[in-house]
């Protein structure tokens, strides 16, 4: 004889129920035929002899019903009705099958059916979209690769490799390139200056000789360039630029100037801290105040 | 007596620890007795019975002691040999034989038959007719689209921005759920030549897909050790808009050559030397290190470099013939760890 109350009294509260899962706040029912998966008196499929559920198999929804008349025949206990694919028609089917059944079960069945259709729609939508593929990583392989990468980095000696490559490219790219380094620039400009001053002095001399009497003795200034004149690096650069310009104007045509500039590679001489290639004496004048004081005292 | 002999042999070898000292004292006493008895000096050097190894000693402490002694002796012998060699070298001076080159993994690399010979005609012909021919013939100039996987986080976003400053003529677009297969025809119609997708996992970028657009090859890399600009120590100011030079190191095999071409095709041909910037792709043992520097020539033989820009390392995972297609693509090369990672001296790039 089926007595729901007795069953519930035993399983629900006092004795062990294998479908029951207890958490801190509430208990759940693991029974596959449970309507709401909570452990309640009204939603326990074991403690209600008249019960109905909605179950979903491979995208198809079925209504399962259990009545007390078949309680003695476990094989035929659950009656299955396939629900219509159309949502409204399926709801009508549920209503029609569960007519005169308790309100609670009818309501919960419809709720469950709605939820199931919603998640089926979602599944269909998601399968059409791109899905993120999760690739499993092997910890061993990852560790191995990380270690090998570190060793490869050390073996690579990147800075040295890059510097070597840049210097090699510099060496190869030499045709027509005016590569001015400070030392060379200094010497070159020096020569230029000497030549120019020599030529200009020569011109002056000629003029003077033409103007004044021939044979008159005169003291002429030295042709050598004074260091003090060239001590200023700025003047050096101006000289440099002017000499470069002269050279460029003389040697190349306009067409060649552009590629030359492009080839210049930005390797202009360091115009940073002044580089003194020759001995340079700096004189500082100090004001002495002591003798004045001494004079006063004495 | 055997025991005593053993002990004396052991202590005769090295007399360093306190135990040994006491043993030696004992041995001296025993020896004296021995001399009086047998008239034979106990040997100073080790007199182990043949076939004896230190690992056979059962006592852990004693075994450890013997092992340390043995190790010290080995070290002494080695340093003595070294000194001797050094002396010989100095004595010979210029006539000394050249120093032997140490073995490194790169020296001992397994010979790969696909290593490209620079004079190879077949390779040259291949290169002239492949997808990069139009780039190397100066017909097309690169235009790059940089994008990420879905929902990028801060690090990835910043990496994309920095990459776009490093690679000239590149644009960053974020995609919100768009499929790559749909992006690609749009890119082709807008004349993009390359597509870079930075894949992200757990808020760090970990993968790079480089796809040459009009039906070009697609390379998939694993990206690691990503350092953004602010994380680089001793870095220079931000890179300027000048087109950088490119350095491709160590791309020797056929596969490496094609990957190198892919990287080269990202940058325009005409580097602006005024900018003094250089982007380096250095391949070492199948790891490609990317660096971005600014250089200055201090003299004819000296150059100073300063790192700007992001840095990362790439490891090639697969190379596909067509554009990105994970399902139906034809793979030219796939990295299979179980087969390809077995030898420590075999590399593929």
TrEMBL record, chain A:
One of its GO terms (biological process) is maturation of 5.8S rRNA. GO terms for cellular component: nucleolus; preribosome, large subunit precursor. Pfam families: Mak16, Ribosomal_L28e. The keyword Nucleus applies. Residues 264-278 have a biased composition (Basic residues). Belongs to the MAK16 family. Residues 249-263 have a biased composition (Basic and acidic residues). This is Protein MAK16 homolog. Residues 6-119 form the Ribosomal eL28/Mak16 domain. It comes from Capra hircus (Goat). Residues 201-213, 220-235 have a biased composition (Acidic residues). InterPro entries: Mak16, Ribosomal_eL28/Mak16. It comes from the Eukaryota. Residues 192-298 are annotated as: Disordered. Transmembrane segments: none annotated. The lineage of its organism: Eukaryota, Metazoa, Chordata, Craniata, Vertebrata. It is found in: Nucleus, Nucleolus. Gene3D superfamilies: 3.30.390.110. Keywords: Nucleus. Its main location: nucleus. The keyword Nucleus applies.
TrEMBL record, chain B:
It comes from Capra hircus (Goat). It is found in: Nucleus, Nucleolus. Residues 87-97 have a biased composition (Basic and acidic residues). One of its GO terms (cellular component) is nucleolus. The keyword Protease does not apply. SUPFAM superfamilies: Class II aaRS ABD-related. PANTHER family: RIBOSOME PRODUCTION FACTOR 1 (PTHR22734:SF3), U3 SMALL NUCLEOLAR RIBONUCLEOPROTEIN PROTEIN IMP4 (PTHR22734). GO terms for molecular function: rRNA primary transcript binding. This is Ribosome production factor 1. Keywords: Ribosome biogenesis, rRNA processing. One of its GO terms (biological process) is maturation of LSU-rRNA. Residues 1-105 are annotated as: Disordered. May be required for ribosome biogenesis. Residues 142-325 form the Brix domain.
